[in-house]
Input
Amino acid sequence: MNKFKKNPNYLLSYSIAHCIFFAVICLLLAAFKGFSYEVNFKSYDSLVVLLAIILCGLPSSVLHNCAHRNVGPRFTNDLIGEFLGTLMLYGYRGFTLGHMFHHKYPDNPEFDPHPPRGYSFLRFVISPVKATLIIIERAYFKFFGNNSKTRANISMQKTFFNVSIALKVLFWFLVFGLKYFLIFYLPLYVLNIFVFAHINYATHIENSEGNSEIINLKDGLYYKFVNLVSFGGYYHKNHHLRPQVFNPSKIIESDENYISYVPEIDLKTPKRSKIFELKLVNGLEQLSKKLNLE
Ligand SMILES: [Zn+2]
Ligand SMILES: [Zn+2]
Output
């Protein structure tokens, strides 16, 4: 976060570098490998889909550990982080920065990129990238001022960020070809997004007093399975208490409740609906209005 505070071009230079790098790589891949549109599904392709399902807990859990520098020496850690940030499209640097905000201000609607308070699950699933951009923008204006120069910088950051995402999608399409892009990359990506959105949604709760609290979830077949394939993803209270531990399921749980945020004013939000109810309630938008945030 210090580099972000010191350098107004910290994220812009990263997105520009990504755009140049992936534009060159895509051109080379298109020239020497070409596009593959062949589909021709075979029965054993179901094993590829199965592999994507089994691996779906890995990308974000390891990327998340890279953000905390828990994956070996710094160079290896960052290399793996860059690879997984590319796999998840939004990149390592922006994810790490957003995640540090999440740890510093958990459930605080002003600076946490994904407080689930007031969100329906489906709205929460599709919101983190946009919500992270809002938080980063808010922090950027706070550190560097809100003027025509900083507004132009933010606008360029968003443009290059979006272009870099499009180039990374093209990159994976060229790498996998249409068939494996559809039966391996897409299920891996989408399931990973759902699994990790639910980890955050289910472990950052509103307790009976209306405060935000972070809990561990470990009972039941689903939580046991995901905790196994994601290195303790649902042991989120443990993770917030000791982020430097690679697998928080290995920590002895504290008896004390972890209250992450106590609303100063009436921030009553709609009662949470069932997980798969098709509602798009946007908690951040509601809270921003109530707190008069820009
Ligand atoms: Zn959290
Ligand atoms: Zn973390």
About this structure: The longest strand covers residues 258-261.
